[in-house]
Amino acid sequence: MTYVAQGDFAPITRLETAVQSMSVDRPTLVLDVDRVEYQFHQLAQGLGRANIHYAVKANPTREIIERLVNIGSHFDAASRAEIELCLSQGADPADISFGNTVKKVGDIAFAWHAGVTLFAADAEEELEKIAEHAPGAEVYIRMIVENSQADWPLSRKFGCRGEKAIDLMAYAVELGLKPVGLSFHVGSQTKRAEMWTGVLDAVAEIWHRAVAEGYDLDLLNIGGGFPAFYGEAIDAPAAYAARVMDLVTARFGDVPRVMAEPGRGLVAECGAIIAEVLLVSKKSDDDMHRWVYLDIGRFSGLAETEGEAIRYQIATPRDGGEMGPCILAGPSCDSADVLYEKRPIMLPLALKSGDRAIIRNAGAYTSSYSSVGFNGFPPLDVVVL
Ligand SMILES: Cc1ncc(COP(=O)(O)O)c(C=O)c1O
């Protein structure tokens, strides 16, 4: 069984060794926090003058936050609980942005009293909530992204369209807030830096219009989208981030404050899930495909297999033998708990119940998506090396 990761990270063998030798009794995400630090430095090198605000939602494991605080990361939080987590690990509240555009008023008040001063908004009512519970705060307006080429797009639900961003800046001023800039999210797992071009063009147009109308904008939040390796080639993080920053600078010039909010690109490759094959079966004797059921599924950590968007690489001890197409499913009694069917996955013909399945580069959006125990299957356990 071999574990493959991108880049030249020498201690990668530590994760490989651990997932092969560790004995577990439930699906377990094994994390190597040194790898997070490595990714942070790679991204920071490429991002240059942009500050990294780690998107805590990607993986809120305490040891990851602690390490990132120690190496100078800032944080993008989505809720009071995420802010509390960062503060508990020593983060400076001034380094935490409250990036969710749909916040509970109690969370806004908590954040403001804790010293968080930077908030996202994409609607009038959100600005009113911020003005009431964090009077005088800095706000950036999130723009909707129409032309995402990401594997996991984040368009539609968040952001406002075009001119509305400028109207919201005017309203923020009226409410006594400080509109300092714009944010967007190009879409998660945007595999190539060039895919940012159309999105950056659209945001830059509004940015320059706002500046022409007299808004003194000094903050551009370029969000996440930095990819992880799931089997298809991607650029190394430093080169990717540097190219994104070139594209940003060409359109926005020297904006004083640029923030990036990587989640997946920072933590996906630092983790692997140890899972177990529960059953290999066929629905009829002449079935072309085998069904392979794992002890982890859509509800216990692999939510991003929805639409087969994120295709994890799976290693088994029987790799190297003859392979055949499989439909991969989770263990629960819910028929939505099928991971890969439209594009079946190739697994060894010798695979059988009880075999270990290692799900590679699964450090992002897995433990944080895991249900408490749907169907009685335990949530994803987390072990930090
Ligand atoms: C506001 C915000 N910033 C950053 C991220 C992280 O994105 P990614 O994991 O693609 O880097 C997300 C992901 O949902 C987000 O909602």
TrEMBL record:
GO cellular component, one term: cytoplasm
Keywords: Lyase, Pyridoxal phosphate
Annotated GO MF terms: ornithine decarboxylase activity
Recorded metabolic or biological pathway in which this protein acts: Amine and polyamine biosynthesis; putrescine biosynthesis via L-ornithine pathway; putrescine from L-ornithine: step 1/1
EC top class named in words: lyase
Residue span(s) of domain Orn/DAP/Arg decarboxylase 2 N-terminal: 34-268
Residues at the catalytic site: C333
Reactions catalysed according to its record: L-ornithine + H(+) = putrescine + CO2
InterPro entries: Ala_racemase/Decarboxylase_C (IPR009006), De-COase2_N (IPR022644), De-COase2_pyr-phos_BS (IPR022653), Orn/DAP/Arg_de-COase (IPR000183), Orn_de-COase (IPR002433), PLP-binding_barrel (IPR029066)
EC number(s) stated in the UniProt entry for this protein: 4.1.1.17
Cofactors named for this entry: pyridoxal 5'-phosphate
One Pfam family, short name: Orn_Arg_deC_N
GO biological process, one term: putrescine biosynthetic process from arginine, via ornithine
Domain of life per record: Bacteria
N6-(pyridoxal phosphate)lysine PTM positions: K57
Sequence similarity: Belongs to the Orn/Lys/Arg decarboxylase class-II family.
PANTHER family to which the protein is assigned, alphabetical: ARGININE/DIAMINOPIMELATE/ORNITHINE DECARBOXYLASE, ORNITHINE DECARBOXYLASE 1-RELATED
Protein name: ornithine decarboxylase
Lineage: Bacteria, Pseudomonadati, Pseudomonadota, Alphaproteobacteria, Rhodobacterales
